[in-house]
Amino acid sequence: MTEFSQKGVYLCDCQGRLSRAVPIDAIRLFLEERQSGLKVVVGDKFCEPRVLSGLVQEHGLQPTVVGACSQFEPRLHLWQEPERASVDPYSIRIVDLLREISSSYSPTDLTGRIKLLLWAQLARQATFTGVPQQALKVQFGRPHGEISRRQLFDMLVPRYQVVPYVQREKCVGTERCRLCRENCPSGAIVAKDGGVQIDKKECHGCGSCAALCLHQSISYPNFSLDQLEREMEGLLCDIGSLEPRILALACQSCRSSPNNAEVDPLGYSPNMLLLEMPCLDMISFWLLLRAFDLGAQGVAFISNKENCRLGRKPEKWPGRVQFVQALLQRWDIEPGRIGAFEVGDLKGKLTQFLRQIEELPPTPLRSFEPATLVVGNLALPELIVSVDRKLEPARTEAISAGAVPFGKVQLDSSQCTACGLCALDCPTGALKFLSDEGSCRLLFEHRLCLGCGQCMEACPERCLHLENTLEIDRLCRAAEAIFESRLARCQECGASVAPKAMIDKLRTRIAAGQGLTSHLEVCPACRAKAMSRAAANMIGV
Question: Buried-most residue among 50, 51, 228, 351 (CB within 10 A)?
């Protein structure tokens, strides 16, 4: 957690433009009163070298959030002064205040927005733990349209891009889980020494692996689930009167405006607030549903397919939207509260979406406190159950729309041999194989099943069937036995040999080939003794 007594918020007045538009002192007092121990420093001309570092040395506070303009961030990475002033450019969240005051919002709405944006970044930084070296990738800038000589010079200076990396101690290994490797659109995740690692040269930083990893072994230092949730919580908190509160989930390429950096392409309404992502494929089911649980009245997905900085088109999020819309419909929340838009086609359609949300009554979730959950992919079942209990829906049917992140395993008991290989290959433990002195059981827990299909591939008898569906009433149930078999005992000593289902299957197959089956119900130790006796008789010992 960030210790705010040693951190500060730095606001750039941009040569008086900010103070002429909003009351800076009121914003400063608001932040310092809301966060104990926080200090807010107001300065000017942060775009010029040595200005920020001078303020840092003067006040002895490392910047955690900086309110400046769009020109500040690239220069922060180019200057050598951050290193001399012990300023880590990757640990600073920047709010483009000049972009905000260039909008047509009223002074009241503008002040409320700036408070929300600054507070949301402070909330996000409370969970920031730093960027390790293995998460930094060297890159050079790419031109967007016509550029100046100064911009060309800046592009020639290398910068670091923060990308995900694997925490090996949390990874369950390649033998049990391969979801990240199979779903990486760049093919950047490779197996190594029983685990996985990310090839930084191939990684585009989309973050889809971090959103998918079940055990949170893939860390994205600047876009962790904790950070995104805290920022979203800050944007949706009860500050001001910007209602209905709408989140705009947008990829980073949507913010590029090379012709006029001071114009916000998303600035259609003061109550629509941006949550920026590296790529929309990083948006998880949990994050989208959590937005409504925290009080969002609408969510707009905004993509830039034709100018994607990652060089690819998002593929995962449309199916996730369909699934969450099906959940909303179950809870009598209008599925139209989620909309998808392309940057080149925002005008008109986004305005219509905003008006549609404004005409709707508040969602029933506004009457309840948000659920208290541990952030992570395995918290999705708890979040769904929490919302379901709050709203007590009349609908009880299973949900199968979209990319359902749950599976229901069914088993043909006439074919199963209770070998347990399916449980060994289950990455979440949704399938468990248990045995005691007299029997063995295969257990299935719906809340843990992702519907990945690895169990079906591992089954030698092809007796498993997987259906991607969600039955909410089963999310609260303990693991249920879907197959059970007695353990066959050795005819000589009585020790456990193998599941009776496996013995019966082998006996049937061997008998069909005119083979002997008497040895099947003999344990390895007794079988070895019998073979030794037979060998001794043959040589006359």
Answer: 228
Q: 124-142, pLDDT tens digit by residue?
A: 999 898 899 889 887 755 5
Q: Choose among 55, 113, 115, 124: nearest CA to 85.
A: 55
CA distance 153 to 83: 21
Question: Residue 517 in 3-state DSSP?
Answer: coil
- Cis-peptide into 132, omega within 30 deg: no
147-219 matches 1-126 in CATH topology: no
Residue 261 tokens, joined: 């950096």
Pick one of 3.30.70.20, 3.30.390.30, 2.60.40.2470, 3.10.20.880 as the CATH number of 408-486: 3.30.70.20
pLDDT digits (tens, 9 = 90+) for 249-287: 988 777 654 433 334 555 678 999 999 988 888 888 999
122 CB-near residues (< 8 Å, 6+ apart): 4, 9, 31, 35, 38, 64, 65, 234
Please return the burial class of 368, using the count of CB atoms within 10 Å of its CB with bins 0-12, 13-18 and 19+: middle
How many residues belong to the chain?
541
The three-state secondary structure class of 443 is strand
Structure token digits, residue 91: 């640990």
Q: Which CATH number fits domain 1-126: 3.40.1170, 3.30.420, 3.40.50, 1.10.3470?
A: 3.40.50
Express each pLDDT in 503-522 by its tens digit.
888 888 776 654 555 556 66
pLDDT number for residue 241: 84
Q: Which residues contact 388 (CB under 8 A, 6 or more apart)?
A: 330, 331, 472
Q: Which residue has the tokens 């996730």?
A: 320
Q: Which CATH number describes the domain made up of 147-219?
A: 3.30.70.20
Confidence check: pLDDT of 204 > 90? no
pLDDT at 519: 59
* Nearest CA among 66, 69, 54 for reference residue 14: 69
